[in-house]
């Protein structure tokens, strides 16, 4: 890793080095907190977790060829050099911030209430048509996952696409300080993490902490159809780049009454669903436009594609490269992932859920062929209005043509009751537990059905998907 000698690491972390002067000049080959991932020349960062203390694996990592260890403890007779620091987690963040700034690379930071991961996948797919791209893997978007992702950047990488997920005030400052993005994308300001952030204005404030950590020439790319983001027309003295459906500023009903949203620089027209196979649209950027088929269903994925086009435009891609990248994007497990099994189509969207993403997934199911079955569970971290917000999702069933709802969880009772009132065409099956739900769901489904599975992660709905795909 460029510029990452043990001497420099000690200096950046404010630690004390124990080891030979010769080793001090050596560069580490990688940095990890999982002892199983240690390779020759790596730095092992010993983190004390809730269940496991990484310090207990220090002897083994030296046996595996680790160059050095970052430790909070004094080590007696270690098999190699170590750097003692007050907090290994704090030192890791300092090190990630330093390493990112030492690299000649463009960084795209992505945040928002809904769609961070799918937007990240879309942007990475598009940019990879021109550049060597490193992207956040899985859900490595927090104060541990982000630095570990930054540590994976190597000299061959030309762009890093980094996802930043938060749930409290101040957290984005810490993440964006490490990422130091050239482009910051915010997908939307929705209804999630309300336990800590309280209101949508609170969410806006927390997400836009990222602006303070943009590079001097950095650009904000924002959803111009979002009634909160549309107000951020200037960011750090530079115009924000807005994207959305239709060029003109829309008149929208908001919490404060009617208002005009933003005019869009990058926009889509002629949006046309193609069932579960995707969505057709014409995308406009500057004086150019191109027709594209986004291979993932749902209008929300049109927005993801538009965000990617904004970023691609800033980084010099041609419209042909943009089109190719959009049309080759892949879904990932738990996020609008289509699984075909036993004549059924299962929409595996159970990684997480909030009211905005729930409604978007119901819209996708509504466009599906055959019998439409929604299997839904509780949404977490919604604060004091959690019951009303579940009922609001249930009200969204009205007129959608959903044949059956299977719902589980204490809060989902509110959702099920609302569906019963608003959508007489929908059979409503409510259960207190996921196990009770599965017991009735499995004999109910049949060939030709389309089944949406969605809930917050704590509900464990991947198990439902697992049973349906057995």
TrEMBL record:
Key words of the record: ATP-binding, Cell cycle, Cell division, Cell shape, Cell wall biogenesis/degradation, Cytoplasm, Ligase, Nucleotide-binding, Peptidoglycan synthesis
EC class: ligase
Subcellular location, record wording: Cytoplasm
Positions in coiled-coil regions: none
Functional pathway: Cell wall biogenesis; peptidoglycan biosynthesis
Enzyme Commission code: 6.3.2.10
Family membership: Belongs to the MurCDEF family. MurF subfamily.
Stated role: Involved in cell wall formation. Catalyzes the final step in the synthesis of UDP-N-acetylmuramoyl-pentapeptide, the precursor of murein.
Protein name: UDP-N-acetylmuramoyl-tripeptide--D-alanyl-D-alanine ligase
Organism, as annotated: Roseburia intestinalis
């Amino acid at each position: 890793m460029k510029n990452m000698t043990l001497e420099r690491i000690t200096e950046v972390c404010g630690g004390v080095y124990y080891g030979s002067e010769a080793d001090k000049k050596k560069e580490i080959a990688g940095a990890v907190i999982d002892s199983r991932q240690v390779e020759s020349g790596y730095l092992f960062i010993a983190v004390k977790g809730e269940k496991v203390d990484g310090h207990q694996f220090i002897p083994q990592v030296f046996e595996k060829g680790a160059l050095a260890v970052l430790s909070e403890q004094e080590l007696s007779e270690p098999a190699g050099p170590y750097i003692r620091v007050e907090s290994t987690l704090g030192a890791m963040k300092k090190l990630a911030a330093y390493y990112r700034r030492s690299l000649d690379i463009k960084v795209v930071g992505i945040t928002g209430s809904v769609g961070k991961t799918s937007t990240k996948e879309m942007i990475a797919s598009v940019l990879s048509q021109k550049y060597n791209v490193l992207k956040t893997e899985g859900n490595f978007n927090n104060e541990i996952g982000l630095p570990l992702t930054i540590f994976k950047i190597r000299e061959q990488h030309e762009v890093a696409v980094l996802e930043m997920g938060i749930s409290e005030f101040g957290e984005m400052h810490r993440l964006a300080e490490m990422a130091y993005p050239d482009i910051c994308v915010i997908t939307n300001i929705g209804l999630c993490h309300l336990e800590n952030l309280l209101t949508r204005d609170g969410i806006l404030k927390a997400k836009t902490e990222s602006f303070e950590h943009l590079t001097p020439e950095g650009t904000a790319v924002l959803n111009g159809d979002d009634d909160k983001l549309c107000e951020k027309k200037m960011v750090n003295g530079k115009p924000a780049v807005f994207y959305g459906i239709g060029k003109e500023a829309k008149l929208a009903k908001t919490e404060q009454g009617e208002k005009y949203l933003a005019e869009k620089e990058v926009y889509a027209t002629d949006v046309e669903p193609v069932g579960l196979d995707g969505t057709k649209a014409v995308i406009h950027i500057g004086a150019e436009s191109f027709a594209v088929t986004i291979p993932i269903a749902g209008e929300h994925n049109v927005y993801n594609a538009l965000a990617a086009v904004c970023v691609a435009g800033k980084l010099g891609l041609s419209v042909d490269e943009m089109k190719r990248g959009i049309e080759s994007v892949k879904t990932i497990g738990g996020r609008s992932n289509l699984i075909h099994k036993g004549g059924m189509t299962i929409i595996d969207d159970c990684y997480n859920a909030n009211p905005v993403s729930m409604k978007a997934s119901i819209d996708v199911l509504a466009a599906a062929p055959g019998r439409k079955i929604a299997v839904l569970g509780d949404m977490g971290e919604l604060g004091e209005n959690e019951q009303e917000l579940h009922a609001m999702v249930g009200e969204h069933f009205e007129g959608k043509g959903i044949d059956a709802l299977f719902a589980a969880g204490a809060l989902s009772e509110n959702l099920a009751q609302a569906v019963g009132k608003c959508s007489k065409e929908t059979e409503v099956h409510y259960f207190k537990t996921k196990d009770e739900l599965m017991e009735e769901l499995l004999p109910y489904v049949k060939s030709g059905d389309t089944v949406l599975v969605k809930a917050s992660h704590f509900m464990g709905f991947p198990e439902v998907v697992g049973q349906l795909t057995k």
